[in-house]
Amino acid sequence: EVQLAESGGGLVQPGGSLRLSCAASGITFKTYYMNWVRQAPGEGLVWVSRIKNDGSGTSYADSVKGRFTISRDNATNTLYLQMNSLTAEDTAVYYCVRDASLGYWGQGTLVTVSS
Amino acid sequence: DVVMTQSPLSLPVTLGQPASISCRSSQSLVYSDGNTYLNWFQQRPGQSPRRLIYKVSNRDSGVPDRFSGSGSGTDFTLKISRVEADDVGFYYCMQATHWPPAFGQGTKLEIK
Fold first, then answer.
1. How many residue pairs bridge chain A and chain B with CB atoms within 8 Å of each other?
2. Which among A50, A95, A101 has CB closest to B48?
3. How does pLDDT run across A53-70, given as a tens digit for each residue?
4. How far apart are the CA of A73 and the nearest CA of chain B, in angstroms?
């Protein structure tokens, strides 16, 4: 069974940092592109970032470019999102999502940016 | 960037009746490889999104055949042949042909 388990969310002050993790199981992790997609409270879905299966290439939405860094560890089947310089607009549930067509989603982790 | 526009944004439907959601893109979604990377997602209340349809009309594993996708170019449709109570929630189209990937605003399906 495919499982994507996000963790690391929580309350952080504006300007602060947070690192999200996503532990993957039930898939051959190293063969898949991986994504982060977020959903602000009561809002729709927004793609945030993607990383190639071998980590050789990364992409970001303009809204997070220069502040967020996606990475992965294929030895431990873990995806990461380092988030710096957080603002209230980054408040959202962050989903770890498998493959370029977003074929499988984790349960999400809530990030709240507030003073 | 490609803009995805869904309609309607709210869809009240009687149980057992059909439902249809439209999704239009600001550019053709036909990729250079000939494929059209248009997907549909369902998000039930309190749950994570789930992909229903990929590449316009291919149902994901476990998706009831009441759900079907169609369309081409810039116009796409998700149809539910007979709405059940379990179908309540939001539906999103998403294009993965052009960079960056983009979602529609979402359509809220509710039971009348």
1. 50
2. A95
3. 999 999 999 999 999 999
4. 24
The nearest CA of chain B is from the CA of A98 a distance in Å of 11
pLDDT of residue A100: 85
Q: Taking CA atoms, what residue in B is nearest to A59? A: B100
- DSSP per-residue string spanning chain A: --EEEEE--EEE-TT--EEEEEEEESS-GGGS-EEEEEE-TT--EEEEEEE-TTSS-EEE-TTTTTTEEEEEETTTTEEEEEE-S--GGG-EEEEEEETTTT-EE---EEEEE--
Contact B12, B19 (CB under 8 A): no
Q: Which residues of B touch A99 (CB under 8 A)?
A: none
Q: Tokens 């009831």 correspond to what residue?
A: B64
Contacts of B99 in chain A (CB under 8 A): 59
Q: Which of A8, A48, A55 is nearest to A32 (CA)?
A: A55
Calculate the CA dihedral of residues A28, A29, A33, A37 and round it to 10 degrees. 130
The 10s digit of each residue's pLDDT in A88-109 is 999 999 999 999 889 999 999 9
Averaged pLDDT for residues B81-86: 97
- The identity of residue A45, as a single letter, is L
